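Checklist before submission:
- one chain only
- standard amino acids only
- sequence pasted in full

Submission:
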Amino acid sequence: MEPSAQSNTTTLFKTDFCLLLTNQILQNEAEKGTNFVASPLSLHVMLGLIAAGSKGQTLQQLLHFLGSTNVSDLNLLSSKMINLASPAEEGDDPNLAGGPLLSFVNGAWLDRKFTLKSSFHDIVNGSYKAQLKSVDFATKAEEITEEVNSWVESATKGLIKQLLPFGSLDNEKNRETALVLANALYFKGAWSKKFDPAMTKLRDFHLLNGQIVGVPFMTTKRSMRHLYGSFDSYKVVQIPYHSQVSRKFSMYFFLPNEKERHGLFNLIQTLKLNPGFLSQQFKLRLDDLSPFWIPKFRFSFEIEASETMKEMGLELPFKPGELTEMVDSPNSDELSVSDIFHKSFIEVNEEGTEAAAATAGRVIQRRISRKNIPSFVADHPFLFMIREETHGVVFFIGAVLNPLQDA
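Returned file contents:
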């Protein structure tokens, strides 16, 4: 049994290229044995920001990769995505069933040799809600690095530190930093059905190199059912977050059936060959799962994504010539994107909200015979995603290869 294609609203949020991008980075990191998390949504929005300052073939290439026909549509799409990733409006009760705690920040720092075009400034402030600043990279690279890092750290409540590595903005021979784009997305959701910390136990987790480590695993009472599906080479569990009516979030765990290395990499290949895989509507049913164990984990991951983008064919934004819609200067044809920095944070633990005692999803017409009760024990490397269900937007994709890594 395979997942069915998801229709309707997901076509409005086409992020296939950024899903392919994150899947490529995921494979590279899995080869190293490291945990990984990134956001296709925030990467898509950042590329939209670059497109807003482009023209000619550079603009056409960006539109092609981002699945849009014109800048206006792309700006509107980015604006909708940003609204999905924005925190609750001021005045809302932070403890209300308002859904996950979200923080999404975009920023651009431009060398002071250039003057921002008013049209670009309006688009960035309006559609992209990004902070733009004119700076002097030649003499204050270290100070700007600290400024960007402080800005991101503040926006993510201290959980994302040092987005820019020390020295990353220093000028090199024949290459002066002209523009830096940074993006940070933080997410923390409360389970709709919380885990009981008293039931958490140390269990074995099997690493790809054959080693076994002791990891805290969470579980639920046997009477609690879970949205579950079993396919040819993997199992899926969907765990909803306490969410708003207009924004519904869930976390999905994709567990390869095989514990060996090829099990994980076969699943990664499935994602790479089908970028729409994570946007599909999986055929899941409420099931008793016995045993049911999910490891706790907490880590961050950062990437400088320009080289991977170039390898995938998105090259023109990184060459001078057509980023002329960003600045008002006779030297604007010398401007090119130097770096795209992105960092994400994720934490999975037992925490939930008391308001999530029951949901309509608990209703089911058919019970499974006790001898056929399936299990879900995530005791070997697995993939995960966090998705907004109303619009089918993938906020995060990641992999846990060692739950103790960066904990």
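Reviewer check: The helical segments are 16-32, 40-52, 56-66, 71-84, 118-126, 137-155, 261-273, 306-311.
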